[in-house]
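Try this one yourself first.
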């Protein structure tokens, strides 16, 4: 099990295992956040108390990016349409990950919506 925690510790998530790969996305929000996203099924993740985070939603309103209400660190995103069995945790919030053995994949969310490390 891994735990992701914001800077102040108010917002914590747990997931069953460390990621083997993460995405670094170049879309307008992800490049600003500098997040490394690790994907999980929402069923496998324990979310923080909803009062601890604040969602940010924009554009097509497909995703909510959650940040800690106290320290402002972005902890995760969730799908809002309820059809996708996927959410993401900001893996930068997990202490002790072995980054030498986690694949960091560049994702072109700004344009082609594809990974840039595959043809
Ligand atoms: Zn915090």
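Now uncover the answer:
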């Amino acid at each position: 099990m891994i735990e992701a925690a914001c800077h102040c510790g108010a917002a914590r998530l747990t997931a069953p295992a460390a990621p083997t790969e993460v995405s670094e996305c170049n879309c307008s929000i992800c490049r600003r956040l500098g997040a490394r996203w690790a994907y999980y099924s929402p069923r496998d993740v324990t979310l923080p108390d909803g009062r601890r985070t604040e969602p940010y939603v924009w554009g097509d309103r497909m995703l909510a990016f959650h940040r800690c209400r106290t320290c402002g660190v972005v902890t995760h995103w969730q799908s809002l349409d309820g059809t996708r069995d996927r959410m993401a945790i900001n893996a930068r919030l997990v202490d002790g990950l072995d980054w030498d053995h986690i694949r960091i994949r560049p994702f072109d969310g700004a344009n082609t919506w594809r990974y840039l490390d595959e043809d």
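Discussion: The chain has a mean pLDDT of 95. The chain has one domain: 2-107.
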